[in-house]
Amino acid sequence: MSLLSTTSLVKQFGGLTAVDEVSFEVDRGETRAVIGPNGAGKSTLINCITGMLEPTRGTVEFDGEDITGVEPHDAVQRGLSKSFQTASIFPEMSVEENVEIAALAAEHGSFQLNFLRKRESFDEVHRISERMLDAVELLDQRDHEAASLPYGDKRRLEIAIALASEPEMLFMDEPTAGMSPGETHATVELIEELQDDLELTILIVEHDMEVIFRIADRILVLNRGRVIADATPEEVQGDPEVQEAYLGGVEL
After folding, report:
1. Which domain holds residue 67?
2. What is the pLDDT of residue 88?
3. Which of the listed residues 166, 181, 209 is the one where a domain comes to its end?
4. CA-CA distance, 106 to 73, in Å (whole number)?
5. Last residue of a domain, one of 129, 147, 166
6. pLDDT, tens digit, for every residue of 221-248?
């Protein structure tokens, strides 16, 4: 049974159609990738699903409920969370405080800015923060200033922040962007561990085809806003239209 589905989703910016009649489904527990050349509409599609952008028309359903055009905080409350293409953290706060802020917002919907002075009263927030930092292997750095982390660990922290709402579905936008080969390998291993340990449904936009072919159960391929393939990694690799869109007919 699908957890997420879109039906004839369209997003236009003036005369430009960035997402063009996109219909697809994501099954519960699946790792689904969205790929395509630059400008294909990948991030715009994710932003329409997560409430960052309002679709021009079409529908988005999550767990059987129409969530088309909901605000981002409403999407989080319903069980969707997103990690961004560039790390989005509070650099002068500790690693743990960054995750606590996200956990508190998800738990209570809103909070006072002085809540960190009374953190001992937020037992559930502590529990969630520790669990997610442990999941991304940053628990032993909980007291470090976030700004002091290496780039790869900042991206791990950003994933922990996204996980702090304990989502049913995690959206990942270019999680390995700017990473060294070693950091990319560690991030792929982390995603695989999250799949196993937290039983997440994951929708990932990623430019690195080796990463996609390793972790994705199915791949949605966009070109100029339209779906040109929706299949397994093996089928996508051999699809002539996908090869043409990416490399002028050269096999992936």
Report:
1. 1-79+168-252
2. 73
3. 166
4. 8
5. 166
6. 999 999 999 999 999 999 999 988 875 5
